[in-house]
Amino acid sequence: MDTFNTIYAAADLHAAAMYLTENPVSYVFNTHWHSDHTSGNQLFTPQAQIISTSITHEIMATFGKNRLAQQLSNPEPIYQAIDEVEEKIKQETDEKLKKEMQWENASNREYMKILPNLVYTLPTITFDQRMSIMVVIGPYSSSRMAAVTRKVMLSCTCLKKKLP
Questions:
Q1: Which pLDDT does position 140 carry in this prediction?
Q2: Which of 25, 88, 108, 148 is 20 to 30 A off residue 124, Cα-Cα?
């Protein structure tokens, strides 16, 4: 699972995972480096290992870290871009596109709220091409093997509860 764009969304995800599995989160998957997939990483460590491809880790460790430092030192261009999109939203006549723009802008505003508290947290386990993970479900159940490919797809379900 990616950890979303904000610390608040990641906290909800963490709580839901613990509720559904009745276990602490052990692993988090960053499918790629974009902030809407990695900004909540800090909420899962040090209890959980964060897994990504080596390429994702490399991009996060270089470009991602530099971009965050730039955003922290000079957030004004982002606020300006948000305001510009807000003006475009007012002019948009296509309702579907308008909703998408509103969602994106709201997401960017939420990201800017958490930016000062963001601890950029890199993946702790990396792999190239393919990774296999042994998942044990419960103390008496059999093990299942799940292959995690470059797209990081986990093919097992371990929910113990249904959402209310």
A1: 43
A2: 108
